[in-house]
Amino acid sequence: MSDSTCTPVYKRILLKLSGEALMGGDAYGINRQTISEIVAEIKDVAALGVEIGVVIGGGNIFRGVAPAATGMDRATADYMGMLATVMNGLALQDAMRLAGLNSRVQSALDIEQVVEPYIRGKAIRYLEQGRIVIFAAGTGNPFFTTDTAAALRGAEIGAQIVLKATKVDGIYTADPKKDPSATRYDKISFDEAINRNLAVMDATAFALCRDQKLPINVFSIFHPGALKRVVLGEPEGTLVYC
Ligand code: UDP
Protein backbone atom coordinates (compact mmCIF):
# COMPACT_ATOMS: atom_id res chain seq x y z
CA MET A 1 0.00 0.00 0.00
CA SER A 2 1.46 3.37 -0.91
CA ASP A 3 1.84 6.02 1.73
CA SER A 4 -0.20 8.95 0.41
CA THR A 5 1.47 11.30 2.91
CA CYS A 6 4.73 10.86 0.98
CA THR A 7 3.43 10.72 -2.57
CA PRO A 8 4.39 13.76 -4.63
CA VAL A 9 1.65 15.27 -6.76
CA TYR A 10 4.16 16.49 -9.34
CA LYS A 11 6.52 14.28 -11.31
CA ARG A 12 8.62 17.12 -12.72
CA ILE A 13 8.98 20.61 -11.28
CA LEU A 14 10.74 23.80 -12.23
CA LEU A 15 12.09 25.57 -9.16
CA LYS A 16 12.90 29.26 -9.54
CA LEU A 17 15.41 30.34 -6.92
CA SER A 18 16.03 34.06 -6.73
CA GLY A 19 19.61 35.17 -6.33
CA GLU A 20 18.58 37.00 -3.20
CA ALA A 21 17.56 33.71 -1.61
CA LEU A 22 21.26 32.76 -1.64
CA MET A 23 22.34 35.84 0.31
CA GLY A 24 20.86 34.74 3.61
CA GLY A 25 21.35 37.62 6.02
CA ASP A 26 24.23 39.09 4.01
CA ALA A 27 24.00 42.28 1.98
CA TYR A 28 25.09 40.59 -1.26
CA GLY A 29 26.80 37.47 -2.61
CA ILE A 30 26.42 33.84 -1.64
CA ASN A 31 26.06 32.68 1.94
CA ARG A 32 27.43 29.11 2.20
CA GLN A 33 25.24 28.18 5.15
CA THR A 34 22.11 29.46 3.40
CA ILE A 35 22.89 27.69 0.14
CA SER A 36 23.49 24.38 1.95
CA GLU A 37 20.16 24.76 3.78
CA ILE A 38 18.39 25.35 0.46
CA VAL A 39 20.12 22.32 -1.03
CA ALA A 40 18.95 20.22 1.92
CA GLU A 41 15.36 21.23 1.10
CA ILE A 42 15.91 20.27 -2.55
CA LYS A 43 17.46 16.96 -1.50
CA ASP A 44 14.33 16.04 0.48
CA VAL A 45 12.25 16.54 -2.66
CA ALA A 46 14.71 14.67 -4.90
CA ALA A 47 14.43 11.74 -2.46
CA LEU A 48 10.73 11.52 -3.34
CA GLY A 49 11.71 10.78 -6.94
CA VAL A 50 10.59 14.17 -8.24
CA GLU A 51 12.49 15.41 -11.30
CA ILE A 52 13.87 18.87 -10.62
CA GLY A 53 14.91 21.67 -12.93
CA VAL A 54 16.20 24.84 -11.25
CA VAL A 55 16.38 28.31 -12.74
CA ILE A 56 18.73 30.40 -10.68
CA GLY A 57 18.58 34.20 -10.43
CA GLY A 58 21.43 36.66 -10.11
CA GLY A 59 20.07 39.57 -8.10
CA ASN A 60 22.44 38.86 -5.19
CA ILE A 61 25.36 39.69 -7.48
CA PHE A 62 24.09 41.90 -10.27
CA ARG A 63 20.76 43.22 -11.50
CA GLY A 64 20.72 44.83 -14.91
CA VAL A 65 17.96 47.34 -14.32
CA ALA A 66 19.71 49.32 -11.57
CA PRO A 67 22.99 50.07 -13.44
CA ALA A 68 20.96 50.85 -16.55
CA ALA A 69 19.10 53.47 -14.54
CA THR A 70 22.40 55.13 -13.66
CA GLY A 71 23.47 55.41 -17.29
CA MET A 72 25.03 52.05 -18.10
CA ASP A 73 23.92 50.49 -21.36
CA ARG A 74 20.98 48.28 -20.43
CA ALA A 75 21.88 45.32 -22.64
CA THR A 76 25.46 45.29 -21.32
CA ALA A 77 24.17 45.41 -17.75
CA ASP A 78 21.77 42.57 -18.51
CA TYR A 79 24.58 40.39 -19.90
CA MET A 80 26.45 41.03 -16.65
CA GLY A 81 23.32 39.96 -14.77
CA MET A 82 23.13 36.75 -16.80
CA LEU A 83 26.79 36.01 -16.07
CA ALA A 84 26.00 36.49 -12.38
CA THR A 85 23.42 33.70 -12.63
CA VAL A 86 26.16 31.42 -14.01
CA MET A 87 28.24 32.06 -10.89
CA ASN A 88 25.24 31.24 -8.72
CA GLY A 89 24.59 28.12 -10.78
CA LEU A 90 28.12 26.90 -10.19
CA ALA A 91 27.87 27.64 -6.46
CA LEU A 92 24.57 25.76 -6.31
CA GLN A 93 26.01 22.79 -8.20
CA ASP A 94 28.96 22.67 -5.83
CA ALA A 95 26.67 22.78 -2.78
CA MET A 96 24.69 19.94 -4.36
CA ARG A 97 27.87 17.96 -4.90
CA LEU A 98 28.74 18.34 -1.22
CA ALA A 99 25.24 17.12 -0.33
CA GLY A 100 25.65 14.06 -2.56
CA LEU A 101 23.27 15.28 -5.25
CA ASN A 102 24.04 14.72 -8.91
CA SER A 103 23.43 17.87 -10.94
CA ARG A 104 24.29 19.52 -14.24
CA VAL A 105 24.48 23.20 -15.10
CA GLN A 106 23.32 24.28 -18.54
CA SER A 107 23.82 27.85 -19.69
CA ALA A 108 21.75 29.84 -22.16
CA LEU A 109 24.98 31.71 -23.06
CA ASP A 110 27.86 29.71 -24.50
CA ILE A 111 30.69 29.47 -21.96
CA GLU A 112 31.69 25.93 -22.81
CA GLN A 113 34.89 25.82 -20.79
CA VAL A 114 32.80 26.43 -17.71
CA VAL A 115 29.35 24.91 -18.22
CA GLU A 116 27.62 23.02 -20.97
CA PRO A 117 25.21 24.88 -23.24
CA TYR A 118 21.47 24.59 -22.80
CA ILE A 119 20.21 21.73 -24.94
CA ARG A 120 16.60 20.87 -24.25
CA GLY A 121 16.77 17.18 -25.17
CA LYS A 122 19.85 16.66 -23.04
CA ALA A 123 18.26 18.47 -20.10
CA ILE A 124 15.22 16.22 -20.31
CA ARG A 125 17.43 13.13 -20.47
CA TYR A 126 19.31 14.25 -17.35
CA LEU A 127 16.01 14.74 -15.55
CA GLU A 128 14.86 11.27 -16.57
CA GLN A 129 18.14 9.92 -15.17
CA GLY A 130 17.40 11.56 -11.81
CA ARG A 131 19.90 14.38 -12.17
CA ILE A 132 18.99 17.90 -11.18
CA VAL A 133 19.41 20.40 -13.99
CA ILE A 134 20.39 23.95 -13.10
CA PHE A 135 19.53 26.38 -15.87
CA ALA A 136 21.85 29.39 -15.83
CA ALA A 137 22.14 32.63 -17.85
CA GLY A 138 18.38 33.18 -17.85
CA THR A 139 16.89 33.16 -21.32
CA GLY A 140 20.22 34.24 -22.85
CA ASN A 141 18.62 37.52 -23.90
CA PRO A 142 18.81 40.99 -22.38
CA PHE A 143 15.58 42.73 -21.32
CA PHE A 144 14.27 39.57 -19.71
CA THR A 145 14.41 38.18 -16.18
CA THR A 146 15.06 34.81 -14.67
CA ASP A 147 11.34 34.62 -13.84
CA THR A 148 10.74 34.52 -17.59
CA ALA A 149 13.50 31.93 -17.93
CA ALA A 150 11.69 29.85 -15.30
CA ALA A 151 8.41 30.02 -17.22
CA LEU A 152 10.21 29.24 -20.49
CA ARG A 153 12.30 26.33 -19.22
CA GLY A 154 9.34 25.05 -17.22
CA ALA A 155 7.24 24.91 -20.39
CA GLU A 156 10.10 23.45 -22.45
CA ILE A 157 10.88 20.57 -20.10
CA GLY A 158 7.21 19.79 -19.53
CA ALA A 159 7.25 20.68 -15.83
CA GLN A 160 3.85 20.43 -14.19
CA ILE A 161 4.39 23.51 -12.06
CA VAL A 162 6.73 26.44 -11.55
CA LEU A 163 7.69 26.84 -7.91
CA LYS A 164 8.81 30.37 -7.19
CA ALA A 165 10.93 30.31 -4.06
CA THR A 166 11.33 33.74 -2.53
CA LYS A 167 11.87 35.43 0.80
CA VAL A 168 8.13 36.15 1.09
CA ASP A 169 5.73 33.32 1.88
CA GLY A 170 3.21 33.90 -0.89
CA ILE A 171 1.12 36.51 -2.67
CA TYR A 172 -0.56 39.14 -0.55
CA THR A 173 -3.50 41.48 -1.12
CA ALA A 174 -0.98 44.34 -0.68
CA ASP A 175 2.68 44.68 0.19
CA PRO A 176 2.80 43.26 3.75
CA LYS A 177 5.82 45.44 4.56
CA LYS A 178 3.81 48.57 3.83
CA ASP A 179 0.30 47.46 4.78
CA PRO A 180 -0.05 45.46 8.02
CA SER A 181 -3.65 44.55 7.15
CA ALA A 182 -2.50 42.70 3.97
CA THR A 183 -3.56 39.05 3.86
CA ARG A 184 -2.08 36.14 1.94
CA TYR A 185 -3.97 34.26 -0.75
CA ASP A 186 -3.90 30.47 -0.38
CA LYS A 187 -4.81 30.17 -4.04
CA ILE A 188 -5.82 32.53 -6.78
CA SER A 189 -6.63 32.11 -10.47
CA PHE A 190 -4.50 33.69 -13.19
CA ASP A 191 -7.48 35.87 -14.19
CA GLU A 192 -8.08 37.11 -10.67
CA ALA A 193 -4.39 37.85 -10.18
CA ILE A 194 -4.50 39.99 -13.35
CA ASN A 195 -7.72 41.74 -12.34
CA ARG A 196 -6.25 42.55 -8.94
CA ASN A 197 -3.01 43.70 -10.53
CA LEU A 198 -0.92 41.40 -8.32
CA ALA A 199 2.77 41.13 -9.10
CA VAL A 200 3.26 37.35 -9.01
CA MET A 201 6.12 37.26 -11.50
CA ASP A 202 7.07 39.76 -14.15
CA ALA A 203 4.44 40.23 -16.84
CA THR A 204 6.20 38.18 -19.53
CA ALA A 205 6.74 35.23 -17.20
CA PHE A 206 3.18 35.42 -15.93
CA ALA A 207 1.69 35.57 -19.45
CA LEU A 208 3.77 32.58 -20.57
CA CYS A 209 2.66 30.47 -17.61
CA ARG A 210 -0.96 31.44 -18.16
CA ASP A 211 -0.82 30.65 -21.90
CA GLN A 212 0.87 27.30 -21.24
CA LYS A 213 -1.51 26.51 -18.36
CA LEU A 214 1.48 26.12 -16.11
CA PRO A 215 0.50 26.75 -12.49
CA ILE A 216 2.79 28.74 -10.21
CA ASN A 217 3.29 28.25 -6.49
CA VAL A 218 4.92 31.13 -4.64
CA PHE A 219 6.40 30.17 -1.27
CA SER A 220 9.19 31.02 1.13
CA ILE A 221 12.33 28.96 0.79
CA PHE A 222 13.08 29.91 4.39
CA HIS A 223 10.11 27.98 5.81
CA PRO A 224 11.71 24.63 6.66
CA GLY A 225 10.01 21.85 4.71
CA ALA A 226 7.97 24.25 2.57
CA LEU A 227 9.31 22.98 -0.75
CA LYS A 228 8.46 19.41 0.19
CA ARG A 229 4.97 20.41 1.34
CA VAL A 230 4.31 22.11 -2.00
CA VAL A 231 5.45 19.04 -3.89
CA LEU A 232 3.24 16.83 -1.74
CA GLY A 233 0.29 19.04 -2.69
CA GLU A 234 -0.13 20.45 0.80
CA PRO A 235 -1.22 24.07 1.16
CA GLU A 236 1.89 26.23 1.30
CA GLY A 237 2.34 29.78 0.08
CA THR A 238 0.05 30.78 -2.78
CA LEU A 239 -0.99 28.59 -5.71
CA VAL A 240 -1.82 30.41 -8.94
CA TYR A 241 -4.01 28.10 -11.01
CA CYS A 242 -5.66 28.14 -14.45
N1 UDP B 1 18.82 38.77 -17.08
C1 UDP B 1 18.65 39.01 -18.44
N2 UDP B 1 17.96 38.08 -19.19
C2 UDP B 1 17.43 36.96 -18.66
C3 UDP B 1 17.59 36.74 -17.28
C4 UDP B 1 18.29 37.64 -16.51
O1 UDP B 1 19.10 40.02 -18.94
O2 UDP B 1 16.83 36.16 -19.40
C5 UDP B 1 19.65 39.71 -16.27
C6 UDP B 1 18.90 40.94 -15.81
O3 UDP B 1 19.81 42.02 -15.82
C7 UDP B 1 18.54 40.59 -14.38
C8 UDP B 1 19.75 39.80 -13.94
O4 UDP B 1 20.12 39.06 -15.10
O5 UDP B 1 18.35 41.74 -13.59
C9 UDP B 1 19.52 38.85 -12.79
O6 UDP B 1 18.32 38.13 -12.96
P1 UDP B 1 17.05 38.38 -12.03
O7 UDP B 1 16.92 39.83 -11.68
O8 UDP B 1 15.87 37.74 -12.65
O9 UDP B 1 17.50 37.57 -10.73
P2 UDP B 1 16.71 37.33 -9.35
O10 UDP B 1 15.86 38.55 -9.08
O11 UDP B 1 15.87 36.14 -9.52
O12 UDP B 1 17.80 37.12 -8.36
Keywords:
binds uridine-5'-diphosphate; alpha/beta; globular; 8 helices; nine-stranded mixed β-sheet; 242 residues; single chain
* Structural class by SSE content: alpha/beta
Hetero compounds:
uridine-5'-diphosphate
Percent of residues in β-strands: 15-25%
Q: Give the topology string: H per helix, E per strand.
A: EHEHHEEHEHEEHHEHE
Low-pLDDT segments, ≥5 res? none
| Overall number of strands | 9
State mean pLDDT (0 to 100 scale): 94
Spatial strand sequence of the major β-sheet: 4-3-5-2-1-6-8-9-7
Largest sheet: 9 strands, mixed
Termini gap: 32 Å
Structural description of this entry:
- β1, α1 (32-46) and β2 (51-56) form a beta-alpha-beta unit.
- α1 crosses α3.
- This protein has eight helices and nine strands.
- By secondary structure, it is of the alpha/beta class.
- It has a nine-stranded mixed beta sheet with strand order 4-3-5-2-1-6-8-9-7, sandwiched between helices.
- The protein binds uridine-5'-diphosphate (UDP).
- Uridine-5'-diphosphate (UDP) is lined by residues 18-20, 57-59, 63-65, 77-78, 81-82, 84-85, 138-139, 141-142, 144-149.
